[in-house]
Amino acid sequence: MSTTAPTHSRRSAILTVTDVVAETPLATSLTFEVPTEAIDRFGYAPGQFLTLRIPSERTGSVARSYSLSSSPFDDPRPTVTIKRTDGGYASNWLCDNICVGDQIESLPPAGVFTPRDLDVPLLLIAGGSGVTPIMSILTAALSQGHAPITMVYANRSADDVIFADRLDALTAANPDRLTVVHWPADQRGLPTAAALAPVLRPHRDREVFLCGPAPFMEVTRTALSDIGVERAAIHTEVYLSLTGDPFTDPAPTASDTTGTGTDTPGIDTADAPGTDTADAAKVAVELDGTVHQLDWPRDQTLVEVMLAAGIDVPYSCQAGECGSCTATISAGTVEMTACEALDPDDVADGYILGCQARPTADRIEIAF
Ligand SMILES: Cc1cc2nc3c(=O)[nH]c(=O)nc-3n(C[C@H](O)[C@H](O)[C@H](O)COP(=O)(O)OP(=O)(O)OC[C@H]3O[C@@H](n4cnc5c(N)ncnc54)[C@H](O)[C@@H]3O)c2cc1C
């Protein structure tokens, strides 16, 4: 059975399912083979996610993001792990229908929920299906680094623990580096900020990666704040269902453009071709060590302007929901239509979403 239309978007690829594993009664892992022509685009960092196109008789298809639970350094193929959402469409469709040999369309890996350095002490905190990117980061950090890792993992009960055997095996293999603290709510009660604080306090100087249901994230953030963890050290992944169709690509892309860039290492200048730049703002945007000087028409998003200039800007959902295009603004101002992937504190700290940001100042400086 193919789960795709015969053609696919320019960014996406058709993946073949090579393995289906029931992790718990509610969670299933799918492993994929990436076609040869897409292997470069489908390299990923631990903690990133894929966005799958799931067929629907009602709407044609829906797009849903699923974090990679595999490690790019340790697992031969990318794997996502999907937990059934009560009454949810796509998660239940995937768990009920996908078999080995099926094909499914996916956007390339995306997301910024990934450690910059795998060799630093980590505090990993997961609730329920939020374990998926945490598992990827944990596996990668154990194989690539040497620093201690503590993982706190909350579930309704022991039966709901995804990857229980793998976590036991990793703990046994790394007794001096890895500690996993399970928090079964049926035995320890629902995690509260007051109850979590003493468990987290010994690790408050570490980089923190947190993913789980919204109420769990909220109490954990409070606990982290109460024990004095710096906001900059806390990295979060928010699970949302995408509302748009990121498989269609309305933004102009590099191959559509005649944008000019200089060969000066570290500095690149380009216009967004085909647009009226008379009233455009000026933006200096840093990406991968190069500062691009661009004209930024007021009606375009940063992602659109960068794509038009031929710059390989990170983005995925184009709806402010996934956070792949998160950047920081250090001068000037922007407005954003939707901003679900950031909380108000993030915005106050200068984080922006490139797929939503339009200029409201004449000179702007942004860094990815
Ligand atoms: C960055 C990121 C990473 C994520 N990682 C994971 C992960 O690792 N594991 C995981 O389990 N989840 C993950 N999620 C969450 C995941 O993307 C989905 O939100 C989750 O699976 C729930 O989707 P659902 O369609 O089952 O449920 P819902 O979104 O609740 O589904 C209900 C919706 O589907 C619509 N609907 C119902 N029937 C149909 C139909 N026939 N056709 C079309 N629409 C219909 C309804 O109108 C309703 O809006 C992640 C999300 C993000 C953003």
Concise account of the structure shown:
It contains 8 helices and 19 strands. The chain is α/β, with parallel strands linked by helices.
Structural description of this entry:
With 368 residues, this protein is of the alpha/beta class. It folds into three domains: 13-109, Elongation Factor Tu (Ef-tu), domain 3 (Beta Barrel), CATH 2.40.30.10; 122-237, Rossmann fold (3-Layer(aba) Sandwich), CATH 3.40.50.80; 254-367, Beta-grasp domain (Ubiquitin-like (UB roll)), CATH 3.10.20. It is built from eight helices and 19 strands. It has helices at residues 90-97, 131-144, 164-173, 185-188, 193-200, 214-226, 302-308, 344-348, and strands at residues 13-24, 27-33, 49-56, 60-67, 79-83, 103-110, 122-127, 149-155, 178-184, 207-211, 234-237, 267-270, 281-287, 290-296, 326-331, 334-336, 351-353, 357-359, 363-367. The strands form four sheets. The protein has a six-stranded antiparallel sheet with strand order 4-3-6-1-2-5, covered by helices on one side. The model is unreliable at 253-265 (pLDDT under 50). Flavin-adenine dinucleotide (FAD) binds next to strand 3, strand 4, strand 5 and helix 1.
